[in-house]
Design a protein that fits this description.
Blueprint (H helix, E strand, L loop, with lengths): L13 E2 L1 H8 L3 H9 L5 E4 L3 E5 H14 L2
Antiparallel strand pairs: 1-3, 2-3
Length: 69
Amino acid sequence: MPKPQPEQPVAEQMLTIPETGIRLAVSPRKVWALIAAGELTPYRFGARATRVSERDVARYIASARQEGR
């Protein structure tokens, strides 16, 4: 019987600003406003690549449902 393989860490899905806007049904400008307000955490890769984690977007949606935003 083969040995069980250790679980490999799964890379977190990262979304572009436009993709984040699509998930939230808002404009990219609103996504930037949410980042500026501290509602979403940006991850910067290089000088121009900014991403938002899918997990953070899901948390934001869940909190918005609870708070009735």
